Sequence to fold (138 residues):
Amino acid sequence: MLVSRSTHSKIAFFIWAVVGLSLSLAGACFLQTSLEEGSFSFLQWAGLWGAVALGLIKGLFVLPKVADRNTCRMRELPDQSPLYTTFSLRSWILVLVMILMGRLIRAMGASPFVMGAIYIAVGMALLLASRAYLQRSA
Fold:
């Protein structure tokens, strides 16, 4: 299916926002499971707030730069181009690597708390940064 440059930006926003929201909700479920196993220690609370801070920093300062590069690349696409070109091959490979890393961390037996903190940090970052696609739409 061929789509316009502006549609690519909207699709990129939608994908980042949905994945970010999904990861944040999954992280909250992992944290709920962790809380059901017992109360959080001070170090766990500190770690959770650290993960939230990291997600905020990455979502406000790092990932918008990635969105800028993607938006610039989208502007160079023909007005009508295939849907899969919304993201570069490098981006699709990075998505695959991130999925595999998540599976590996779970397979290594990470606690629900650790999984929750990671998912919330990554989810928040994607959700915050997704707005860059709308602000800088092609």
Summary: The CA atoms of residues 54 and 71 lie 24 Å apart.
